[in-house]
Design brief:
This protein is mostly beta strands. The chain is about 0% helix and about 45% strand.
Length: about 100
């Protein structure tokens, strides 16, 4: 399994129509750096490499995505490099559970 370690910083905002948007910024601490990072969750049927959910590279180790129209409730998600065998792991190479975010 490819060893990855990501730290996510989350920023939330809603527009005037009460739609919930979530901005996620990821610091890529993997060696070597990821070529692409994807987010997956119930919002895309847990598809680990859906192009629509590829994060955009901000600089050499920071990536971002804005998830739009996320319903209130618990948002569960993971990061991958496009496949389940490249899902996010800890610095020790251990598979992590789903991230949880209350919207």
């Amino acid at each position: 399994m490819h060893k990855l370690f990501y730290v996510a910083f989350l920023f939330f905002y809603s527009n005037i129509y009460s739609q919930n948007n979530v901005r996620i910024i990821v610091n890529d601490l993997s060696q070597p750096r990821a070529a692409k990072i994807f987010i997956t969750g119930a919002f895309n049927s847990w598809n680990p490499g859906e192009t629509k959910y590829a994060l955009q590279k901000l600089d050499s180790n920071r990536w971002e995505i804005i998830l739009k129209d996320i319903p209130k409730g618990t948002l569960s998600y993971k990061f991958t490099q496009g496949e389940w065998n490249t899902e996010e792991v800890s610095a020790n190479g251990e598979t992590l559970g789903n991230h949880q975010l209350e919207i």
